[in-house]
Amino acid sequence: MKLVRYALNGVEKPAIVDADGKIRDLSSHIADIDGKLLSDLTVLDGIDIQKLPIISDKFRFAPCVSGTGKFICIGLNYSDHAAETGKELPTEPLIFMKASSAICGAYDNVLIPRDSVKTDWEVELGVVISKPAKYVSEQEALDYVAGYCVVNDVSEREFQAERAGQWTKGKSCDTFGPIGPYLVTKDEIADPQNLKMWLEVNGKKYQDGSTATMVYGVAFLVSYLSQFMTLHPCDIISTGTPSGVGMGMNPPKFLKDGDIVRLGIEGLGEQQQTFIATP
């Protein structure tokens, strides 16, 4: 299934994509695409999707899940990206947090923060948790995954790396976490470790990679993180990015007011954001 949250007149509602790609309203059957739903997707069984109302009015793609508590990111998880940044591969997954307040929709504008000079892009595979996971094995880890989504892990490199402290403040600015447009349930993705991914800025492709080159795969990451913290329904794991980010260019290239970023992952859909300078 491809699940969607859409907004009309500021009200966000759940929906589903039918076989013809039309978006149909689910709000008469469920309250939201949230932890309650993800913990038991069987409540959608038996719904005749073709009888659901089609969303014909112009709408906004809202974030594809509601109620995310933890937005966990994995750094330097692609060997080519680590090489372009001049860093060695971590001997264990490098974990940092992105504030859940950074979450926005797949086509929302992204705000370049005040005083930013190094706002950058990162296409990433997002993993959405379905049920509480604590001390789970790698073999059972995918049983705790509801599905996958596209994430743009927008980053301010100066805030991240050149100012004191950890990476979080360079990752957590408002609108720095577009997710969606869809939550694609795991049954539609045969192998999360074999998905093409790409990103372009103003029509020029900069990232062209695959989840096949991850250092630590999805199952390992879910298991690994569950050894340190309980993962809860709607928590998101953003699993890292391949090479081609702005800071890896020679000379480096960063986003400016009016730039348009498009990105996508095979089977998960596409995003597009216009980057707008904060007054």
- Major sheet description: 10 strands, mixed
Question: Radius of gyration from the CA trace?
Answer: 18 Å
Tally of strands: 19
What is the general shape? globular
Query: What class would the helix/strand composition place it in?
Result: mainly beta
| Helix proportion range | 10-25%
Question: What is the element string, with H for helices and E for strands?
Answer: EEEHEEHEEEEEEEHHEEEEHEEE
CA(first)-CA(last) distance: 40 Å
Low-confidence stretches: none
* Proportion of residues in extended strands: 25-35%
Number of helices: 5
What is the arithmetic mean of pLDDT?
Answer: 96
Structure explained in plain terms:
With 279 residues, this protein is mostly beta strands. The strands form four sheets. Strands 1, 2, 3, 4, 5, 6, 10, 11, 14 and 17 form a ten-stranded mixed beta sheet that branches. The protein has a five-stranded mixed beta sheet with strand order 8-19-18-15-16, with no helix packed on it. A two-stranded parallel sheet has the order 7-13. Strand 1 and strand 2 form a beta hairpin. The radius of gyration is 18 Å and the shape is globular.
